[in-house]
Amino acid sequence: MNVSLRWLEDFLRRRLDVKDVTERLAMLGAPVDAVEPLHADLTDILIGLVEEVRPHPNADRLRVCIVNDGTQERRNVVCGAANVESGRKYPFAPVGATLPGGLRIEKRKLRGETSEGMLCSARELGLGQDGDGIWELGTDAPPGSRLLEALPIADHRLQVDVGPNRPDLLGHKGVARELSASYGAQFRLPVIPGSPTIDVPPVRRVGDSGPVGGVRAAIEDIEGCPRLLAAVIRGIRVGPSPDWLARRLETAGVRSINNVVDATNYVMLELNQPMHAYDIARLRGPSVVARKGRAGETVVTLDGVDRKLTPDMTVIADDGGAIGVAGVMGGAATEVTSETAELFLECAYFTPGGIRRTRRTLGLSTEASYRFERGIDRWGGVEALRRCIEIIGATAGGELVGAPVDVGPGPANPPRVFLRPSRVTQVLGVELPWQSLESYLVAIGATLVSKPEDGRIAVEVPSWRPDLNREVDLIEEIARLHGYEKFPADLRPFRTGALRDAPIERAATELRRGLARQGLFEVSPLPTAPADGPESVRLLNPLSSTDGYLRRRLLPGLVRLVEQGNWAHHVSDVRLFEIGTVFIAAPAGRRPREERHVAAVLTGHRTPPHWTGSGQEWIDMWDLKGHFEAATALAIPQGTVQVEGSEWIAKDQEGRTVGRAGPIKADAPPWAAPLFGYELQLDPVVRRPPRFAALPSTPSSERVLALLLAEKTTVREVEEVLRRVGGELLESVAVASDYRGPELPASRRSVAFRLTFRARDRTLRDPEVDALEARMLATLTTELGIQRRDAGSRGGGE
Amino acid sequence: MANPTGYPELDALLPRLDAIPSLEVDALASELIAVLGRKNGALTEALKSVASLPMDQRKGYGAAVNGLKASFEAAFAARRESLDTDRQRQEAAGVDLTMPARRRWVGSEHPVTRVVDEIVEIFRGIGFTVAVGPEVETDWYNFTALNFPEDHPAMDMHDTLYVDAPPVAGEQGGRLLLRTHTSPVQIRAMLESAPPVRVIIPGLVYRNDPFDASHAPAFSQIEGLAVDEGISFVDLKATLIHFAHRFFSSSTKVRFRPSFFPFTEPSAEMDVECQLCHGSGCPACKGTGWMEILGCGMVHPAVFEHSGIDAERYTGWAFGMGPHRIAMLRYGVPDIRLLYEGDMRFLEQFVPGGRRGSGARPERSEGAAGQG
User: Fold this and answer.
1) Is the N end or the C end of chain A the one with fewer CB atoms within 10 Å?
2) How confident is the model at residue B227 (pLDDT cuts 50, 70, 90)?
3) Can you tell me the distance from the alpha carbon of B116 to that of B120, in angstroms, rounded to the nearest whole number?
4) Which domain holds residue B169?
5) What is the Cα–Cα distance from A528 to A546, expressed in whole angstroms?
């Protein structure tokens, strides 16, 4: 909502400081997003008093004026305007001043006479259309005063952010009401310049239809239009609006069109009542009806677009059909033009929900629909209609034909809300005196119907506040007007919550920290993706046609980050992970299943390359396996990493596959290192803390076993045998090397295992370890056909 | 000079003890053998001779030998160490110590996660626990239960992304959508537990907003809810001021302004003093000196009614804020898209201890290309 500071000043009958107003509005709940000073380009213009006018010696149409600009000296100004007179004041642009168009005033000679400045017309100052003569000022300000200070033309446009609950603030009156409560001052409708020429009789209330000035005004769609006020004015002269009116509208961001349309717009901006004027001469038949649209019906709206109407919409129609979309936009056929002499003025209340549906169906949002949709003052129509008639009278003349009519079922009892002072205390936490409650409610226009009785008060809420329906709505008003800043802020005792931490969040946090410790960076790309298998969840209204689904896996998104976020910028060392939600389609009528996953991608150097030559190797599959094992341990308690085909998988305790790791194909530049990745499902079970195991107090004994394995025998199989035979005495098994070479028997490899033996209760002696080692070898030979590599080459090949 | 022992043959060794600190490497080695050598070392021999002494002299003499032995051992060790240090120093003298260190890769959590974690920690400290909920919700959880009137302009603040699937039946069903805020989790928490409820809810939320410098179609939100008997607007203010003082600084100015949310009333917006200009006004705060940090308010009775909580007996307050936006303010990130792109050069800037400590800056990738 664009608000004119001057307009507010006219309401409050006082000068306002823009910073102060901004501050107050913010604290009242209507923050000002931007302040735009208007006519700041007139800063250089002064008030000049013409003390003498002489004919120009060399030009018939020019005059030489002696101008008093407040200094000791007098300025010679050559002026071409016919209306310049001595003893009068005019806007004076001295030498050095810049006019709104950018013209810089300089001292120069005009036909031999020196001119030191310029007397200006209103048009030259951007203040109106009048360019016929210079602008005579009826001001008491002394010569030399700044024009902006002497005249009320400078203004500020305030962009007020009005919440959807406060339609009343979409008019200047509503904003003025808030400020009047804040300043503790009265507010009244501003005086319209020009004497009122139309005497408005009281409106005549009729049922569902009634005549006004020979036109039948009627409501057929009582649901969409419960109230329609109308008046007929004849003998008007449509023309440009006076400057004050045009300027007001422009300040509020509305273009001036003509005096009639401007009058309706003025009322909308002032009283938040959108209105519409029809040219009676262009009506087909003497009636204006608010009714439902008809199937197949169309209307060309003011913007020249042919609109399809539907039976869901409320339309305004004459005897020939629709002439406007009610509450959204009028029709072009009955538009007021310069020829119009007789007007039908519509001032209606349209139901918010209906207008909202209509403007969405039509895809047409207007100043009017915006207001109706939020709910205008249901009983504010009379004031608005009178105001509009008054302005039209003052700017376009004419006379009212008959009394205005008020069609509709008539006012119901104003809504009543009960307020308990005890509840105010319960919600706000402080006890406010009864007098304060009363004064705050009165300030917003509510009426207190009763004194406290049974601990409660009946309050009639004002009709311009459709947001006030329940007790708590009044409590908010009280808190707002009391001032949020006045409430204390002492931390009072509290009870802790009954819910425990969500286990999945705990698990995710631990996992995240663990992965960061391993040198990975957390990322969080957008969770939308292209389709990824039949279980992908599709969006109805996606933002991007390529990413029209919710992701089914995290990994493809991470690969995209490597390609587009890093390789594209020539970054080759990339290590990213994400913990996020994936979505799996469910049977119709059910929410999709959501799983929390973790995924990572790795490429580039294993460690930062160093000048000593270390760290030159790429990350390889064994790095990946290490990362995968570490992530599995963090993500899945009791989870294991196993081999499946040519990739690694993670299994949970129940043996379900919950993750995979392997090399990744990507759109890689030629210089890129191989890319690896994994993805795992995060298990939400509560993690048990680690248990301390007593540190050993006995020495260990180490052996290296070099074994010849058949190609298809796996290290895991060997390890299982070693552990089974070694029992408790075998503390650990490590692979020291894996060697293949021509000197080995065909299709065998040599794997060296480093075994650590330890007895917890005694020092192991060599003979005992020797015996155990011999048993291990014997079992390996029997079960897996494994021989020890000959004793001379311990440790495997190099 | 070391103290005499009173045994002439032992005291004869004392000058040699005093000479040790000036011995060079080779001399030190031969002197060690001469004095402590297992075969003919002077003190080894002296110790052996103890056995041949009369009983009454053994103890005194033995103690003297052992004392002297300890002194020699200590002197040898000290000299060896000082020689080692000298050697290292000499070696180091030829090395350019400004050469770069050998570093390791470090990683870190996302800057937005860091903000979320910090917020969660502050609220954990005052009795909150973490709650989460699904990202695909029904109309009922996302809007109806939170008192959004149907066909009301309040809905315009939540441009919603819908799932292309049939609606969920039942009272709590409706069209499937991507939650537009974390507030549905409030409803879930209240349906799950009777008061007192005190939860903090982090999570991703979705809007049908184009992806530009200041908007993203999915972003993080963190929400808090406290419900109990006797909870009031004063508690809301007090708790959130406590939060602001912990998260920003204890001298940060805070203000509350009226605002509107369908699910709270009274509703408020909390501003904190602009962290860049400290209130004097700058482009970042549009000259106001304030920065909007969170929305909050007293839980609307209609929300309690939908959540099966007695709105007469219990009151509550809730707040919500956007960690993405706070991360942008805190770290000076000018474009929200940077938080989604996964660019290592961006992420490396948020390593704890700073970029230098991280050693995370790789060599020029063109160089790396040569090896690949």
Assistant:
1) C
2) very high
3) 6
4) 111-354
5) 9
